[in-house]
Amino acid sequence: MTVRYVFIANPKAGGGKGFQKYKDRITRFCEASGVPYKFMLTRSGADLTDFARSEGENGDEVRIFVLGGDGGICGAANGVIGMENVEFGIIPCGSGNDYVKTFGGAKGFEDIEHYLTAPSRYVDEINTGHFASVNICSMGIDAIICDRTNRMERAKKLLGSGAYTLAVLISMLGRVYNTLKVTIDDSEVFEGKFMFALAACGQYYGGGYKGAPMADPGDGLLDFVMIRRVSKLKMASLLGEYKRGAYPDSKKFEGLVTVRRGKKMKIESEKPAVVNIDGECLRLSEVTFEVIPKALRLIVNDGKC
Known about the structure:
alpha+beta, 8 helices
């Protein structure tokens, strides 16, 4: 059976250069290999989900590749959750490209000639009750920073962690905590003032912040991280180690960080708080993050398959 190749491209991703960077290489590969292929260009975020779903629902074997950033990956993945006939690929064209960092970085995904024939493996997603996440979800100051990054005009001119770091500095001028009740797997409860609480399939977010350094996207579990309230001065001193993912072994974080692994995290906030779902932000008083095991057959060229 011949496998179809579909390339869904966000022409605005990566400053509008991503699609043009890869189009000719993809075309040459597909023509030389004799595989049926087509490009689909999006006009909105909804197109990503709709295009992916329509191609997957045909029922035949198809490899769907998204040319875009983390938001585009999330959007398209929501269209094909649980479809066994679909293998899902990523050609990173965004500013941060955080999700692929969990699999060794963008290099393996940009090696078009090898990546388009690489094998797939199952990865998990996160059910949020709104739409699914492939990477990291959170409530608290990091979600506020994400929301500010999305809205700031100046940040749009910066790439990756530069925009995020600028948003960190500005956000620290306001309140940096929320009063939360966090319940893990319907049993373990944590209450108090938290900087944030997150649930993760992947390891990186925010343009290179390694927020969940031990997360395994295919183990059927989520990594949960909660960091309690600290002063703004203390927060500034912790930021570097948090970004590197060094906090689990850091004495600076003793008594501040709680790490768990499980299937579900419910967060209840005393007041409506910003929630980050793969870079999309909502304001909610309550949210639940629950694992969707083996949600996606992800094409990975990281030497592990």
